[in-house]
Design brief:
- The mean pLDDT is 94.
- The protein has helices at 11-27, 42-45, 62-76, 88-96, 131-141, 160-167, 190-202, 217-226, 240-249, 259-266, 280-283, 311-314, 318-329, and strands at 2-6, 32-37, 53-56, 80-83, 101-104, 120-121, 175-178, 208-211, 232-233, 252-256, 271-274, 292-293.
- The protein is globular and about 60 Å long.
- The chain is built from 13 helices and 12 strands.
- Strands 3-2-1-4-5-6 form a 6-stranded parallel sheet, sandwiched between helices. Strands 9-8-7-10-11-12 form a 6-stranded parallel sheet, sandwiched between helices.
- The chain is of the alpha/beta class and 342 residues long.
């Protein structure tokens, strides 16, 4: 049996699909399992040896990439295609595969009329349930009873020599603070990050590594101007694979709702996350929802991309974050509540 997973992006969504892939791989040992993905998220799965084939679609070079992509879809003659992306593009690719079974989400959870391209749909379920759990519904639909959530992938593989050199000389394991966010409404404030760094350095005496993408470099400069402490600035200076190794080597991760947060989860780093506009029950760090920092206000979560006030994030103080950090550093987490939002 030949199966195709259509999960093109984003980074966090791709990371959260890995547990489903692992269940499929473990339960359908003789099956050929491929993955359709876009270049930006490709580094996340390139080190999963048990993916039989990776089919890349480059939307930024669509005219050049599309014919070859469609040719490869049809050539493989897949028996089952799972559309986990639930948008028009992924639905269209699912249809073009000519697979006998084209399985997608139920109509209410689909976007952009993507449901019209599938001929089977998983049963309706809570759309606010964590996305990891929603993806696992596809395994249950295929009569697979295994539901163990595990990542079991070293996204940083191949970066070991550089990582060993980077971490050499640290007097103790550092804390990674990722300053980026998937949407502007999810971003914390530079003065808050600066204050948090000062406390971690002066009161906790823990080295801090600042991470983020190239789009966060200006933000990092503002933080640097407002902090009195020194930190290691890796913002815009790492690949996704090297970044994963940074998180793997750190004592814990602190950051907002963004792809790197989910990478940290996959790499086994405890995650303290800051949530406002988005719903942590649905997109929070799986297994670390007890370490989510958020404020209960009437408009949150709103799921907006932009917000003129960002009150939900402004109300989060460094002391709120440090309360969660203390739980990790002092081993005071209640394991019964790790997914308290689920």
């Amino acid at each position: 049996m030949k199966i195709l997973i259509v999960k093109l992006g984003s980074i966090g969504d791709v990371v959260n699909t890995i547990p489903l892939f692992n269940i499929l791989r473990e339960s359908l040992t003789d099956s050929f399992i491929a993955w359709a993905i876009e270049p930006k998220a490709y580094p996340i799965i390139k080190n999963i040896d048990l993916v039989d084939k990776i089919i890349i679609f480059d939307r930024y070079h669509c005219l050049k990439s599309l014919p070859a992509f469609i040719f490869r879809l049809k050539k493989e003659r897949f028996d089952i295609v799972l559309d986990l992306q639930r948008i028009l593009k992924s639905g269209f690719f699912t249809f073009l595969s000519r697979a006998k079974r084209r399985i997608g989400f139920d109509k209410d959870r689909c976007k952009e009329f993507s449901w019209i391209w599938t001929n089977e749909r998983i049963p309706a379920s809570d759309p606010e349930k964590h996305m990891v759990e929603q993806y696992l519904e596809f395994a249950r639909y295929l009569n697979i009873t295994n539901s163990k959530v595990r990542w079991d992938v070293d996204i940083s593989r191949g970066e070991e020599p550089k990582l060993k050199k980077f971490f050499f000389g640290f007097y103790e394991k550092p804390i990674a603070i990722n300053i980026g966010a998937s949407k502007p409404a999810n971003r914390w404030f530079p003065e808050s990050f600066a204050s948090l760094i000062d406390i971690l350095q002066n009161d906790y005496h823990i080295p801090v590594i600042l991470t983020g993408g190239p789009e966060d470099e200006k933000f990092a400069r503002i933080i640097k101007e407002r902090t009195k402490s020194k930190f290691i600035d890796l913002v815009g200076k790492t690949s996704l694979n090297f970044l994963a190794g940074i998180f793997k080597g750190c004592r814990l991760f602190i950051g907002c709702d963004t792809g790197p947060m989910h990478i940290a989860v996959a790499m086994g780093s405890p995650v303290v996350s800051l949530f406002g506009a988005s719903n942590p029950r649905r997109t929070g760090p799986y297994g670390y929802l007890d370490l989510v920092v958020r404020k209960e206000i009437d408009c949150s979560p709103c799921n907006k991309k932009k917000c003129p006030t960002r009150d939900c994030m402004r109300l989060i103080k460094p002391s709120d974050v440090l309360e969660k950090v203390d739980k990790v550093l002092n081993n005071k987490r209640n394991n019964h509540n790790i997914n308290e939002f689920l």
